[in-house]
Amino acid sequence: MSLKIYSDPEKMGAAAAVFGAEKIRAAITAKGSANIIVATGASQFTMLKNLAKAPGIDWGKITMFHLDEYVGLPETHPASFRKYIKERFVAQLPVALAAAYYVDGSNPNPQAACDALGKIIAKHPIDVCFIGIGENGHIAFNDPPADFDTRKAYLVVNLDEACRKQQFGEGWFPTLNDVPKQAISMSVRQVMKSRTIVNTVPDARKAYAMQITFEGELGPMHPASVIRLHPDAATFCDVAAAAKLSAFTRSICAA
Length: 255
Fold this sequence. Notes:
Elements: E1 2-6, H1 9-31, E2 34-38, H2 45-52, E3 62-66, E4 68-70, H3 81-88, E5 99-101, H4 110-121, E6 128-131, E7 154-158, H5 161-169, E8 182-186, H6 188-192, E9 196-201, H7 207-214, E10 233-238, H8 247-254
Parallel strand pairs: 1-10, 2-3, 2-6, 3-5, 6-9, 9-10
Antiparallel strand pairs: 4-8, 7-8
């Protein structure tokens, strides 16, 4: 697992996009296509902006999945992750994707939505997974204690108070009570199946999450800590997000 620290979110996002774009191009060169996972949230703004305009990527050979969505939220809602990805990423691409599979949180049967997506992603081994981590250390919407054991690709999860407060604090909802209490999330095991993980984490609000991810106990109470076990996981952060990391962690992860 590698760690790169940058002076500001713009440089961080640009570097993460360069790294991820190279992995995508390599996958297309090797097998003629690529499968990717795209995350949402404020942490991904600069990375996605740069990834969409990365040179030399044949987007027409790429199949995209996304990580999670709120249960019961229509795509027209400002906080909809489907809306976010379509507007901030897919619409910015120079050509259309080969395919895009979105998490439909408005499905009246969220478990059926999970099962349908699980069957599709099983046929598309993921080459590059772009993620962030939440203020509570979650990965996708797998809040602590996360389910490290399930082999399902997607599952319905309950959102904890810290997670819901983050969504409200970032301005996605007018009040905390408006934040849904459940979501459909890609599972931890499915994220870990990805050939490469690109983890982008800006802002001082994420300093605690970075600390428990890199230095806390590895386990379900610190969900993102699982990426320590991945053979090709690269984390890109700014100095504010790295503020609580020890000099030792910085040195061994930068090596």
